[in-house]
Amino acid sequence: METAMFGAGCFWGVEETFRQLDGVKETAVGYAGGEVENPSYEQVCSDRTGHAEVVKVDFDPKQIDYDSLLEVFWNCHNPTQRNRQGPDFGSQYRSVIFCANAEQKQKAEASKEKLAASGKYDRPIATLIEDAVPFFRAEEYHQQYLAKRGRSNCSL
Among residues 5, 35, 76, 99, which one has the fewest Cβ atoms lying within 10 Å of its Cβ? Predict the structure, then answer.
């Protein structure tokens, strides 16, 4: 089993996207990259803790590889917007990949370069690629938020 961690805006839809993939064994939403130990949702939403809303993805690399997870990440949000996705804005919604090891970091950087060179976007890729940091699990009501409500995405 391996773990990946992605921030791509509001964690509800991002979690549901990854949760549907064969080979993903568990997902959890939470906060990472900030300066407050075990922050609350209200603290993170203040945009003063430095945390991003993230999804932790536990996956079986024999069923789905990290490169495939990166593809899903790039396609589930707009990576040219650093601190905004849709109507949500602030550093807690930043586009970020937290890498568990050197191999993940190399793959993330290579995939970012490939996407930038592809011409898919008119603007530069703003996604940050950083070393893993502590993950703080979000409150239980955020876990599988959309699935609990019979929804697959946040769109109206």
Answer: 35
